[in-house]
Amino acid sequence: MTTVPEPQPLLRLGRRGRAGVGLSSREALFLLVPAMVPILILSVAPLVRGIYLGFTDSRAGFGVKTHFIGIDNFRMLLHDNLFINSFKIGLIWAASVTAIQFCLALGLALLLSQPIRGRWLARSLALVPWAMPSVVVGIMWKLFFQPQAGVLNELLYRGHLPGSNIDWLSSFSWALPAIILVGVWAGMPQTTVALLAGVQGIRDELHEAAAVDGATTLQRFWTITLPQLRPVIVAITTLDFIWNFNSFGLVYVLTQGGPGHQTELPMLFAYNEAFKYGAFGYASALGDAMVVVIAFVLGFYLWGRLKEAS
Amino acid sequence: MRRLLTLSTAVVLCAALAAAAAQAVPRKHSVVNLTFATYVWQPTTVAATKQIVDSWNKSHAGIQVQILPVDVNSVHDKLLTNFVGGTAADIVHDEAADIGGFSQQGYLANLSPLIPKSLKAEIPKSVWDTVNLGSKIMGVPIMLQTYNVFANMDLLKAAGVKAPTIASPWTWTKFRQVAKQLTTGGNYGVCWGLRSPTATIQTLALNFGGQFNYLQNGKWTFKWGAGEQAIPKIMHDMIYVDHSIDTAAIGLSGSAVLPAFFGGKCAMTVQGNYQAQGMIQQGPKGFNWALFPPLKGQSQNQAANPQTYSISQQSQHKAEAMQFIAYALNAQNMAKLAAGDWLIPAAPAAGKIVIRSTKHYGSWKNAISAVPYFRKANWVSIAAYPQWKAEIATPAFRSYLADKISLDELGKQLSDGWTKIHG
Amino acid sequence: MIVSPRRKTARTAQYVALGCYLVFLGFPLLWMLSVSFKGPRELVELHPHLIPSQATLQNYRDALTQNDLPHSAWNSTKVATATAILTTLVGLPAAYVLARQKGLIARLGLGWILLSQMFPLVLIIIPLFLLLRQLHLTNSHIGLVFVYMVWTLPFILWMLQSYVRGIPRDLEEAAMVDGAGRLYVLRTVIAPLLAPGVVVTALFAFITSWNEFFLALVLLQTPDKTTLPLRLAQFVGIEGIPRLGPLAASALLATLPSLLLFTIIQRWLTRGLLSGAVKG
Questions:
Q1: C115-150: per-residue pLDDT in tens?
Q2: Which phi and psi angles does A2 have, rounded to 5°?
Q3: Is the same domain home to C51 and C118?
Q4: Cβ separation of C100 and A42 shorter than 8 Å?
């Protein structure tokens, strides 16, 4: 084929597609059905029902019927200090993990974009937490934090630092900071990858021009790198915050929400309500409350994007 | 395009059909298949259970039993999901204090009409009372435990401390005093793993008459009196006043403090009496351990909270299930199970059969000496108890033992929590 | 070329920083590796060392023979493979549409991909559990695979559609103009170009379902069906003295497959995610 003749509409045109390649809506539908059907049945439908369950008194019981009870669950939630506690812990956790993770990941991304030796090792290691099951991450850090024969306490002891006797994950004061550390470690890959992509996407000419103008590295960072990265930063921190707020597996393995509800994230509280006490309606109401928080965060993000676009 | 779609739909349908077919259990009309979910974990008890099931299966071709192991750390959660999901086993192994909730939810069968007279007669009424919920019997008691002091006799002898006897047991005061005496040179008097302190505290509270729940005008209320406060206060003061309990270890589970005990870091430890098995299996050779008779407050009473076998309401073969339970809990078999776990069998006849010959001080004799002191605790049979225990009591007790809240605040949290859950 | 002292300090600082990151990222893993080679006596020593004084392979032997780990690993393999295949098969046509079509459906699809990441799993898991119970698909690998498929689809679709976008439309146009049917074009022109992307995506789906924990925790009830992460989680809390050596060995063995696969695909992974992340 040396010449490409005039494209002729051999196939039915899609309503918006370009001639030839455009899919007709019928074809598009055919291709989507195998994915859409399971999604509708196993994802959308349960989600809708789950949201609805928050307004019912659904609970475990042989032959127990479910009734619509309006906003009673939500009224109970507001008076439940365990609910308030879990949201407080959830927000502290999400904010801390996201913020610390961001700073560390940004640093790492900047480093990885430099031509220094050994960065292939750092790149691979940075992705390792992503590859590991959350259970293994939990086990690994449990070994790290072990009170009597663990490495953290041993290092503190050798360095003559205080705290070498603390049972970190069982301590009322230290459990939350400890799991935040683990959360940061586990979330490094996603954030680093996104920021690295952003950093590498900044056109070199911008940096070169600024360097020619005599700007220092720090000045270049503030005036070029950060502003250019802004869309990526906003996107990834929003996503991270939401993912962290919804987190379950890692903390379940590390502390099960203990000691004494000190690390009980919203999802953990909901899990207990649903699968320990069988209070399905109540747990779903909690899920609905979580969605409200997330919607706020998302709304904030979208509003920011809209402002940018205008 | 259309062909591809039809083809893939066909493939998916075929896969689903094959799956459904694979899931269908082949029906053998003459054989009843029972599933038996049990959380036994000590190797000796696992072997004993297996042996009982094997001998049953051999002699009862028409009723075949299959063991389904359950993880001991998540029995309640697993049972709940199984019940809700309709996949519960026919015979369910749990404990008296936990089956209240499931009974109220309707997941357990009422065993009163099913229990054969011989089995009923074997076990004393006081033990049947623990599984009696509103005149319905929800489980068959198997074996009970107490909390005892285990001691490193070498360390005690070196300090000139004499062991208690069944005739003259130690009081809590004496225990505290010895613990303090043995706390020297970086070592502690007692290692006590208080990660899950609720069962220990409430069981021992009967030493001081603390029932926690009292029937008032037909309603179960929560009271925080001297009897209830005694044990937590003793624990707290031993940690923060006497400094005879290792603070670093209180967040650990009961079994996790054993390495320190074996290593001589602490002279004594408080454990469920079943830990005698742990001493035998995990202890270093020649380790001179002893199991002491129960401690004495105003009395030596401890709450009876037996392990139980129940039948799930969804079971299609309740009568056959009870036949197996009756067999598994006849005197010889109950003795085998109890011996494997070093627990006290519910039936006195079985207790006589269990012979423990160890060189270790007292041991089985001391364990069995607790039998007259089992009392019914009100909280064991209340439906709301499991949730109150997990959601309110354990975190609150841990807060208090970590010195984060005062004794009064502890009482308030426990009481408010009870009102919130039970009403 | 003379490197200015300023540059040199900057470089040194960078290496130090890199070193710190390497320690932070790698040390916990190194410690677990160390624990996995220590015998039970050494593990209860109050002042442990990084390098085991008496290295032993017994923990690995225990891991492989006890606690049903190989069986649950096999379960995980079955489930993960089925999920990877099914998700890719189902996702590919849909991704094609999302990448090429500019209409409402495509926008809905992409919107759903983003939105579905936001909802807490607890909302879905209860009705899903109740639904699967009616279909008798609880405690079944088939049920789990379908759930995993739906659960991994968003990310898979995202990756696949960016790969499809990477193939210029003109190629398809040109081929079809010559009278070839769409199916033929897809098979002979697009598919070979997509192949690397599809492989990466399928491997990613495998890793994600291999690692998954929460859904398996709720949906699988009996020990014979347990997947590997679930088995490990039970290991962690066992009554009785927790045997740290075999636990560490098991954890390492459990993560080996996903680590290996991840190392293989990581280069393509970052490329595939680039477009998604930057465009946000």
A1: 887 788 888 888 898 889 888 888 889 999 999 999
A2: -105, -35
A3: no
A4: no
Q: Which of B41, B69, B263 sits opposite C223 (nearest CB)?
A: B69
Stretch A132-152: mean pLDDT: 87
C247 and A CB contact within 8 Å: yes
Q: Give residues with Cβ within 8 angstroms of A214, minimum separation 6.
A: none
**Per residue in C82-115, pLDDT tens?**
999 999 999 988 888 888 877 777 777 778 887 8
Q: CA A129 to CA A184: how far, in whole Å?
A: 10
**Would you say residue C62 lies in a domain?**
no
Q: Which two three-digit tokens encode residue C149?
A: 């498929």
A44, A284 Cβ separation under 8 angstroms: no
Please state the separation of Cα C128 from the chain's center in Å.
22
CATH number for C235: 1.10.3720.10
Residue A218 belongs to some domain of the structure:
yes
The answer to whether residue A62 neighbours chain B at the CB level (below 8 Å) is yes
Instruction: Name the one residue in this structure whose structure tokens are 């200090």.
Output: A81
Say what the pLDDT of residue C126 is: 87
Closest residue to C232, CB basis, from A139, A151, A157: A139
This complex has an ipTM of: 0.84
Residues on chain A touching C259 (C-beta within 8 angstroms):
128, 131-132
Give me the residues of C, 129-148, that contact A with CB < 8 A. Answer: 131, 146-147
A157 contacts chain B (CB < 8 A): no
B86 interface with C at CB cutoff 8 Å: yes
Residue with tokens 């430890």: B269
Half-sphere exposure for C19 (CA within 13 Å, toward CB) = 6
To the nearest whole angstrom, how far is the Cα of C114 from the nearest Cα of chain A?
10
Across the range A193-202, mean pLDDT stands at 84
Any A CB within 8 A of B168 CB: no
d(CA B394, CA B56): 40
Residue C41 has pLDDT above 80, yes or no: no
Verify whether the Cβ–Cβ distance C28 to A144 is below 8 Å. yes
The shortest C-alpha distance from A97 to chain C (Å) reads 15
Please report all neighbours of C, defined by 3+ CB atom pairs within 8 A. Answer: A, B
CB contact, 8 Å: B383 with chain A? no
Give the range of the structural domain holding residue C48, as residue numbers without chain letter.
1-56
Beta strands at B361-362 and B147-152: parallel, antiparallel or unpaired:
unpaired
What distance in Å separates residue A32's CA from the closest CA in chain B? Answer: 10
Which CATH number do you get for residue A167? 1.10.3720.10
**Touching check for B318 and chain A: CB below 8 Å?**
no
* Integer angstrom CA distances of residue B348 from B272, B332, B351, B354: 20, 11, 5, 10
